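user: can you give me the structure for this one chain? tokens are fine.
assistant: on it. calling the predictor now.
[tool input]
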Amino acid sequence: MNENKTEYEVINLGFEYPGMTGGVKWAVVTALDQATLMEKYGKELSKYAPFVLMTMEQGEAFHEYDRNEKKHDMRSIRHHDLFGYEEGLTEYFHSVFSNDEPEDAVIARAEREKMREGLDKLPPVQRRRCILYFYHGLDEKEIAKAEGVTQQMVSKSLDQAMKNLKEILRL
């Protein structure tokens, strides 16, 4: 792809802005002026034509916006039930993983211990993914990237883990 990362970066605007209309689908972020850029990398960049030229400052603003959007998405994901509502199980997981309403420290400790025992009975992959998802706050996409698998595989694994835990914990 881009072998000259220090000189320029290509951004797919169609990916960043789904539903975008217009003829320009690429942006090139560089500190070089257009003439120098085209002289040095014109052939390489021709496959992205037409493209918008962005300064490094504009590119950094673009990346900062992207980082903030991802943080917002993560917060949204963490505060919603990914697998929907399932009577008994949803309340149980919220009681175990929530710090918002510490009703009674003894009950909370017992619940966490029960959860640990349940997690220990899961297959290793499901156990690892549950720990990453619930305890470390990673989303499915981050887990998939770290493990080199698809997000769909992680989602199915977590869904099966919830079913297994429900059976193990007899909820």
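assistant: here you go. The helical segments are 13-16, 34-45, 56-78, 89-97, 105-120, 124-135, 140-147, 151-169. The CA atoms of residues 127 and 163 lie 13 Å apart.
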